[in-house]
Amino acid sequence: MNKKITLSTLFFFLVLTILTVPALAISYAETETVDVGTATSIATAQPTEEATPTVTPTPTETQEYLIRIGNYMFIPVGDKVIKVGDTVKWRNFEDTKQSRYLVNENGIWEEEQYLPYMRSVSYTFNETGVYTFYLKGRDEKKMNITVVSVPISSPAQPLTLYEVLGAINATGTTFKATSIDNPAVLYYDLEDRDGYGSITFPLYDNLSIPYGKLNYTTIPWGNYIGWGGSKYAVIYSSSSEWIITKKLVDEDQDDDYLLRVGESLFLPGGWSIKPLEIDVNESEACMSISKDGVEVDSKFVTLGVYFINATYLGGPQESEIMNFTVETVFAGFNTNLVKINNIDLISKDILEIKNNDTNLYDGYVIKTSNNQINILNDIDIPLSKGNAKNIISDLFSVRVNEAGDMAGLIKKITEPGIYDIVGATNASTGTMLKAMSADNPAVLYYDLEDKVGYESIGLPFYSNLSVPVGEMNYTTIPWGQNIAWGSSKYAVVYSTASEWIITKKLIDEDSNDDYFLRVGNTLVLPGGWSITALEIDVDGSEVWMSISKDDEEVDNEVVTEGGYFIYKTDLGGPQESEVMNFTVETVFAGMNCNIVKINNMDLISTDVLDLVNNDATLYDGYIVKTYPDQLSLINNDDIELSKGNVINIIGDLFALKVNEAGNLGALVKEVEVDEYVPLIKYILKDGKILEGDGYQINNYFVEVSDIILFSGDLMPEVTIYQLNSDGSYDELTTSTTLVDDKRRVKYQNGLIEILVQEKNLTSQYTIVDITASGFTVEYKKYVSGGVSNAQYYTSGHSPYSYTMTLLQGWNLVSTPIIPDYPDVDTIFGSNEDVLIPVYTWSTTNKQYYEVSEIELGKGYWVLALNDTQVIFSGTPYFG
Fold first, then answer.
1. Do residues 737 and 723 lie in contact, with contact meaning Cβ atoms separated by under 8 Å?
2. CA atoms of 750 and 772, how far apart (whole Å)
3. What is the distance between the alpha carbons of residues 74 and 100, in angstroms, rounded to a whole number?
4. Rounded CA separation 478/458 (Å)
5. Could you tell me if residue 554 is left (phi over 0), alpha (psi between -120 and 50 degrees) or otherwise beta?
6. Rounded distance, CA 550 to CA 533, Å?
7. 527-543 pLDDT per residue, tens
8. Where are the alpha helices (DSSP H) in 1-137?
9. Which pLDDT tens digit goes with each residue over 431-443?
10. Which of 24-33, 293-302, 624-633, 746-755 shows the highest mean pLDDT?
11. At 529, which helix (H) or strand (E)?
């Protein structure tokens, strides 16, 4: 690790010296490196005058995008969105050096554009609209360029890890949500009982919200205001203009942090707090705060006094960005400690809101007054069946079910962690807290697709925080053979007036949820269940399927193509219950592999819940009441709540949270959101996909072991091998599924997942997505001729790659490895966020030059339109 730091640090100073001391040359001859990693480049929004290549525009002005033409297609593939004034350049990079003709359907050129090898044509788009392009002879492969009139946000939308359904239009065509009634999606502070936001819009049959019919209103309290689902600080307000900024930390004296001297406490937004030293009298501490690793302020603070950092954010006076209390300092023998609390932190990125502004949120107009802010749509907003759509940029999201007859306001959780989803409160009902599925789908079960879910819970909220015997009532009503239980879907195994048997629904899928199983491979399911295709008959019309529970076979049977596999067992009902069933849709016998496609999977747990009338033992402190058409639970003991705490009720079916003041309660649901490792897309091979083709990815090797013709498509079967240090390899046990017409092959321990798409007969390339856990996918290289060639890449030292991090603006960069393919177009050309050409500085002529290749030991200026990364492989320099 020290060698890596030494190399990147040394090279930074050497390259920087090129630009200031012309007589100095750079050489790596005396520097040894063994480990190569990710280096951070130097970036500014615009280079200084000395370092700015004057021939290239800055990213604060209009932008230029490069589209490569190769293998008779546009690269990168897919459509593009740009803004008015941007320029697109098409350049011919055909390996065959053939000429191409570029055609536009909108008539921007009088004739098709002739592009010989390495020649380019550019066009600046000065009007909004959708422009369609294709290559002559490939009319079916079209690219649409959408030109918009507003700046395009550079950061990609964060990935949704969990979706909270906060409010629905269960009562008709009008959708309305408020902070008090729907705190899961609109900001509401349970402690201070503040938050005054509302959103309304109609949901018509055509799924279009007409002009002016969407209204979002938010009202401030004190110096704060709700904005979307977050708390903001008000910096300035008048009838015509507001300045607000997001509240990042809002804690009190009970939120303590004990820090060692020299230890940093990291806060949201790139901020951190570090105690530097304490005085000998233990009465004060020198505290430092930093933003993005750069110190912003430091000062000595006496015990019990606030550390305050303030700056101008556009208001009439300075705004407090951060403040906290230094409560205690302690000088020990080996460690000095500082205890802080009461941290308050706001963002320095302000939101300026002006009356009648239509630029802040495209398609919306802002209305301001002295005491509230409104946002109205000034265009029609189209929604679509089965999809979620962001509204008011990304302040809110609306999901419409597949039938198009119901919509829900949803909250997208994009960061891993444990979240308390707040549902119903007694804020609007006084002493009674009551929740129903249709009104509180965030904490009670409701299916937006099927419009079902009939749970309700009610209890009084008295000042002594005690719920008397018999005053809490939970009721749930079935639909068909299903019922909600504790916010989850259950199957009804048996029901009478005096007894019900129910069990949890583990999988509930339809014909669109397909899984492809290679014979011998296993599909792992929830609850310890799995499905294995054992073998198929010679005609390919039947398959022998096996299902297991906790690795022990439960059942096996032969299923004809188009038939059902059904497993039943006795769960206590009058007849056996279907625990698992699925459809065997297709059976295919290939040359080297046999494949089975299954769907329509349904799976319930075999762990049943037996509910008997008047049973007081199932849930301690509660009695079960059964009826022919519903189930109820009533408390037969007092339920004691407490200030500032969360109390489980009915076992752990539900939870109640009481604020510190003890004057407000809420039904809450704890959700644990796991971290997601993003998919990294690679185009691994340009050209026809062949059996025996292979791809090297770190110490994994992927081989296209077989290509079969299936339903008119070419379906590559892939096998994953783990490469050993001696160059040998071991085949890994995998499972195969098909998701959105993409074949997914996953190594069973979850380390690597390969996603192969574009498998049709005319496909010219393969895209493989790698989901990696525990390591970074850095190396990729195409191997022709099968898995035996893997030894070439594992002999000697391991393959290396370099991740070049580019920030928006000009970047001074270098490479610590010798690139395998050093030409600029290969390294940067496929990244649409990098603007070619690349420049270097001549110390002899004192000017900038375009370069065609990247070399070890030189510095380069690269212009990035957005924050991005460029990864390329190469050989380390060992001196």
1. no
2. 8
3. 11
4. 19
5. alpha
6. 17
7. 999 999 998 886 768 89
8. 2-18
9. 899 999 999 999 9
10. 624-633
11. strand 529-536
> Could you tell me how far CA 854 lies from the centroid of its own chain?
34
Contact 790, 820 (CB under 8 A): no
Report the pLDDT value the prediction gives residue 14, as an integer from 0 to 100. 32
Cα separation, 874 vs 387, in Å, equals 43
Distance in Å from the first CA to the final CA of the chain = 18
Query: How far is Cα 387 from Cα 397, in angstroms, rounded to an integer?
Result: 10
Q: Are 329 and 282 in contact (CB under 8 A)?
A: yes
Q: Which helix (H) or strand (E) holds 391?
A: strand 388-391
Helix (H) or strand (E) holding 396: strand 396-400
Structure tokens belonging to residue 602: 């349904």
Q: Name the residue type at position 419.
A: Y
Burial of 12 (0-12, 13-18, 19+ CB in 10 A): middle
Tokens found for residue 510: 């339809």
- Number of residues written out for the chain: 879
Per-residue pLDDT tens over the stretch 832-859: 788 888 888 877 777 778 888 888 878 8
CA distance 524 to 549: 10
- What is d(CA 584, CA 34) in angstroms, rounded to the nearest whole number? 53
Cβ–Cβ < 8 Å for 793, 696: yes
What distances in angstroms separate CA 495 from CA 36, 610, 625, one per listed residue?
65, 10, 13
Query: For the chain, what is the radius of gyration of the CA atoms?
Result: 32
Q: Which two tokens stand for residue 589?
A: 């016998």
Instruction: Give dist(CA 845, CA 282) in Å, integer.
Output: 61
pLDDT at 876: 62
CA 443, chain centre distance (Å): 22
pLDDT digits (tens, 9 = 90+) for 279-291: 867 688 999 999 8
Compute the half-sphere exposure of residue 370: CA atoms within 13 Å on the CB side of its CA.
0
Strand extents, DSSP E, 693-764: 694-697, 700-710, 713-723, 729-731, 734-739, 742-747, 752-757
